[in-house]
Fold:
Amino acid sequence: MSKELLSSDLRMSGKVTVTFNTKWLWLILGIILVLIAVAPVVSSYLPTAAPSSPSAPSSSTSTSASATGTATSPPSGGAGVNCANPCTIIIVNSQFGNGQTVVVSAGTKVTWVNKDDTVHTSTSNTGVWNSNIIAIGGSFSFTFSTPGTYPYHCEVHPMTGTIVVVS
Structure:
């Protein structure tokens, strides 16, 4: 008889109580927090469309050296140079410049300027140069004297670039 009474009370009042186990709430919150934490890492692997034009080198301390290695033979005659001497590559949005290959003439001083919100490096894949850590707002310079193709990367992030030096 009490079951019938309870059943009829629910039909009359129209109220239903729903219980939710709190472990599911914590699981959902945990998943959301993991997604929020992983989002910046995932976005650093996605290509960005933030082109950056060369500008004058900043007044930051810079280091200069001379290139001595060659990976491949580039075209000669200065054809296709797309960055004048001195050449500045702006690091922003975890990308070197606009993401395109930089072509310079032999003897060009290339300066990487870090305008990103984190530290970076400019490190030759073949050991020709290594900037070590370039602080936020800092810069690093390297003079390329030998024609060739010089791939490089950031040792902190999945960023790559290429300098082609022509005679």
